[in-house]
Amino acid sequence: MNLFSRFSLVRVVTASTALMLTLALLTVSAAVYMIISARIADEAVARQDASLRVAATIVERDIPGTEVTWDADGNVQKIVMESIPTAFEQHDMIDTIGRMTGETATVFAWEEESRDFWRRTTNIIKPDGNRAVGTQLGQNGAVYPVLTAGKTFRGEAVILGTPYFTIYEPIYSPAGKIIGILYAGVEKSVITALAKDMTTALEIASLLVLVASVIGMALLSRSILRPIPQLTETAQRLADGDVELEVPHTEARNEIGGLARALEVFRENALAKAEIEREAEEARSMTESERQDRETSRREREERTNAAVTALGEGLRKLSAGDLAVQIDTPFMEGLDSLRTDFNASVEHLRKALSDVRDTSEAIEGGSAEMRSAIDELSRRTEQQAASLEETSAAIEEITATVTSAAERAREASSKVGATKTDTEASSQIVTDAVAAMGQIEKASSEIAKIIAVIDEIAFQTNLLALNAGVEAARAGEAGKGFAVVAQEVRELAQRSANAAKEIKELITKSTNEVSVGVELVNKTGEALRGISEKVIDVNENIQSIAKAASEQSTGLKEISVAITQLDEVTQRNAAMVEETNALTHRLGDDSTGLQTLVAKFSMGERTTQKMSAPAVRAAEGKTDKPVSSPARAMVGNVARAFGGNTALAANNDEWEDF
């Protein structure tokens, strides 16, 4: 207090305010810088994990023989691949990863001859405009020894002159040998740009707040405290005997006005004193005893008046030094004691006013602390909502791709069913032709049977003729022996012809029966083919309906994706407004703290303690929020069940863990 008493109140208050604001702004800037640094590190790790999850999922889908295992947090634990293609004719897979993550990705393959990893496919573009395919990782960097030891590398790396936050995940063969690397990288400038912008904005805002606060406090202090030095000077001049001056600020209605009116009473009393001295001078002609009595009375009155002026001046000096506990306990002479009581009452009122200001500033600080806590919680919830929207958007994109693929497959199936229908109709015609051919065969068999019957009849007649010839040769006697032998041979020949005709007839009858059975079977086959053709037509119509519905679903999902993107933009704007409100509440709390510090400079004759208000205590306790579950999980699961067999949606749901 002795140090501050060397300077005016306006300068002390202004300088103290500037110092406290500077310290507060430096502290807040340091805290914000530390928070931003931590956020940058966390954001880099989170984006690395997210990019690696997307890259691993798409690699597992597009490269046969790939299997990815996941840990409990939904991150990639191990990648096993039967083999890595020696060359990629198309780079659609790696470009898809780049579009979904917005970052860089590369697939490396191990080469035994060079004992190094070589880029097989990548979306990193060299300065000449070509992809960086066919370039090696290099054995001299920090990545090579970590990966050859079978560990995952995380850290900063410079690729083609651009710094990245990178993650390199080794790819194993089924035998456990490292055969490649899956790389995902996030540009460092993308993550640090926000921190630079926030730091610059914070420095500018802090400087503006400091300048505005110092100027405002200087003007406010000058306006409030300027009358006190004037009244102090007036009291000093009254003490020196200058009673002709005019006491300023007597028209004010606050404690300063009361003090000015008290000084005005002092001035009037001084004038009365001068009048008494004048009257004393005129009474010199009175008797010595009366003169001595009056002199004694005058001296006593003078001493009491001087004592009152001195006590009041001392009180004013203490008051100008900020001591609000000053009280004048010694009673003044009659007629002046009202000055003492008015002075004490004015100081008491001023002390109560500053005490109320202090209590109000504490209440403001408590309320601002509670507001900060609520706004911090709202900020966290807004960030969680933004993360959920990001996951939902990614899931909608996956679903849209799956539905589009399903529609394409449905169209392919419809085309194949149409071809099957054509083949079935052709087969049905073939069966009809076969039935007609069987009928012709059956008809020919009937004609052959008739011919065989004629042959059998001829053989029978020949046998009778040969028998008659034998009888006639026997009648002829010796002359007909030769003819009898011929007749016997003809008869045997006719018998063999009849036997052969009989066997042929039996074979033809059996063939006719078999042909009939074949005709019946061919007819049944024709009927079955006609039924298959009808069912194929029904299947074709159903598949066309499925393809049409899948196309409509794809269009609807695209509209949903656009709506979710707009909702994400609104959420980001809400988050920015929450950050601005949070900054304002912090500034309000700092201003209330500075006001308490200024009030504490005044001594009020009581023990002042800094107590945290109930709202501030509640705000300081902190709250832990349970992460909001992502709606993308249920959506992806439903689509995976609806389109079973699509590896793009058969991934483990753990990869959609909340941030």
From TrEMBL:
Keyword Nucleus belongs to the record: no
Origin superkingdom: Bacteria
Annotated keywords: Chemotaxis, Membrane, Transducer, Transmembrane, Transmembrane helix
Sequence ranges assigned to domain Methyl-accepting transducer in this UniProt record: 360-589
Stretches for region Disordered: 277-306
SUPFAM superfamilies: HAMP domain-like (SSF158472), Methyl-accepting chemotaxis protein (MCP) signaling domain (SSF58104), Sensory domain-like (SSF103190)
GO biological process: chemotaxis; signal transduction
Localization terms from the record: Membrane
Any one Gene Ontology cellular component term annotated for this protein: membrane
Annotated TM spans: 201-220
HAMP domain sequence ranges: 222-275, 303-355
Bias type Basic and acidic residues, positions: 277-305
Predominant location: membrane
Record Pfam families: Cache_3-Cache_2, HAMP, MCPsignal
Annotated family: Belongs to the methyl-accepting chemotaxis (MCP) protein family.
Protein name: Methyl-accepting chemotaxis protein
Organism per entry: Oricola cellulosilytica
